[in-house]
Amino acid sequence: MFQDAAMALQALLEPMRLLALFAGMMVGLVFGMLPGLGGVAAVSILLPFIYLFDSYAGLAMLLGAVSVVYTSDTITSVLLGAPGSPASAPTAIEGHAMAKQGQASRALGVGFLASMVGGLIGAVVLFLAIPVAGPIVLMLGTPELLMFALVGLFFASSMVGKDLKKGLAAAALGIFLGVIGPASAAADIRFTFDQPWLLDGVSLTIMALGLFGIAEAISMLAIGGGIAGEKMVLGPRSDGVRDFFAHKWLILRSSIIGVFGGFVPAVGASASTWVAYGHAMRSTKDKSKFGKGEIRGVAAAEGANNATVIADLVPTLLFSVPGGPAAAIFLGALFSFGYYPGPRMVSQNPDLMYLIVWSVALASVAGAAICFFITPYIAKLTRIPFAIIAAPLLLIMVLGAQKSTGTMGDLYLLFGLGLLGWMMKYADWPRAPVLVGFVLAKPMEQYFWLSNQLHGWSWLMRPGVLIIASIILIPLLLSAWRAWRGRGLPTALAEGGETGEITTEAAAVPEPGHVTIISTLLALIATIAFGYAMWEMQGFNSTSQLLPGLAIYPGFVLSALLLIQGVRSLRGASWGSFDEHRFLPVLLIYPVAIWAIGYHLPTIALLAWMLLVCAKMRWLSAAIYGGVVFAVMLGMYRLMRADMPGGEIITLF
């Protein structure tokens, strides 16, 4: 084994192969920082170039990109609050809150170093576990995989936000959005409203960018100034190192959680990252900082998601079952070079297996080192007026969204989901459960259908299912027990849990009027949406109703309860001085203008508005900067081979 590993390292260290690995790593770092592009876009761009090299160099190039995407997307998550992937949602929640407090440098430093450890742990496990991982994975049946997905979804719903009803309703909404399009087990097309651009469902890229990227852009444009509210205090690089070593055991445990999550095809990163985040919260005595900028949340999430993306290669290499879209492209590259993954690959191609391990390990270390040393310069971006940064980023989001189907429907979804994300943010509905529920919907539906077909409903009593379900049930029962015992205690202690930090006076302070109004309106929209879905679902095949019913019926009940609760709170509520809604019309008019007259003129007008009105730049500076941004975007459209909308009115002439 060690002889094969040494030979593989020697093969990788040849100059041309190292150059290919480094080139792939740089592409992965850049695309990881661009919202909506990420790993799939990076490996897609590299795919035509890998055939210029031998098989080792070509595969090393792809692995270099895959290994560092989760490292560099920390930058987007922290500075913009827009996760580059669903697995980065906890980083966006905690890291972006830290950035607003002037602590972006700490969050980025810990995120990069935790990502490096996660990647190395994943590489070590890949080195040691591939010969024995097959039997372990085969021990997990579809019922256990379904329960593992439900655990991840529960953690996403319950760990963020104050109201569990809102978290569960958000998760149900995510599953509802995830089942749009073709059913997995029957010939049904669900909830498409006869729109051809919905026939394949909603794109994950559009979902993530809309809920987080567009919503955060609206808020930051309205607030004005930079991302950090106060002057950024960067401090020495040792600050990030100190935080890293302070939480080293948490990062190690989270990386191990991520490794086990990577073994589960199509589910891993989304579920395991939230399990690691939940572990970080439960292992902390003072939970009051979570959701408000807790460094432990960043450390746990980044350690888990990087370990998961590497461990995703285990089912890819052993069973030809890719753990995610990027792994699927890597699997296709293996086939094209004449390698056929399977249990025999370990014995027939040990040199290739260890070359994969070395490529991942080297890229993880080098990528984290590059990101770590540029952290102080990146963190300075938080003091630049956000409108200057938002101008190119918003257009990159549009490009990232439009490459889904290449139709105007992508932009409708992007900005529609942006409006939904903005409402959820100010209605105090957690957005992360929507994203996680959306990602898990397809694999959960397959596992749910197969479990019922193979076992009936008896799968609920399988030992593995009961053990995994206890991860959900035990905390719920303990919370119910504490609530029952605390019935006679003061409100502060009952609501504050172990810390007791919420005082009776603070708990009695009513939420701002605009929060009550937006929350009630959102509950009304969700109730109508779930009600319509219940009605349309009756025409589907019974197998097509299984998973939608699991989300839609509880979602309707929860939304209706939240609507009743909101209506009761509306008495005396006034909008007040909250004026962010003034920025919504401009961003909602933009896709309509593109539909009418094409991409160019509306984009130029949007750039002028953001630079001259929002950023208050001078005419000459705005013209030069805007011209460069516009030219770069045109070049990226050509590079990505994406079609620009021509405009319905223009095409009539």
**Cα Rg:** 24 Å
Low-pLDDT segments, ≥5 res: 489-509
Number of helices: 29
Largest sheet: 2 strands, antiparallel
Q: How helix-rich are the residues, as a percent range? A: over 70%
- Head-to-tail CA distance between termini: 69 Å
Query: How many discrete domains?
Result: 1
Mean pLDDT: 77
Beta strand %: under 5%
* Total number of strands: 2
In terms of structural class, how would the helical and strand content be classed? Answer: mainly alpha
Sheet with the most strands: spatial strand order: 1-2
Mass-distribution shape: globular
Secondary structure elements and their pairing?
Blueprint: H1 2-12, H2 15-33, H3 38-46, H4 55-80, H5 89-100, H6 104-139, H7 142-158, H8 164-178, E1 181-182, E2 189-190, H9 204-223, H10 238-246, H11 248-262, H12 268-282, H13 295-311, H14 313-319, H15 325-336, H16 345-348, H17 350-373, H18 375-379, H19 386-402, H20 408-426, H21 432-455, H22 463-485, H23 491-496, H24 504-508, H25 513-537, H26 546-569, H27 584-597, H28 600-614, H29 619-640
Antiparallel strand pairs: 1-2
Helix pairs in contact: 1-17, 2-3, 2-4, 2-17, 3-4, 3-15, 4-5, 4-6, 4-13, 4-15, 4-17, 5-6, 5-13, 6-10, 6-11, 6-13, 6-14, 6-17, 7-8, 7-12, 7-21, 7-22, 8-21, 8-26, 9-19, 9-20, 11-12, 11-13, 12-13, 19-28, 19-29, 20-25, 20-27, 25-26, 27-28, 28-29
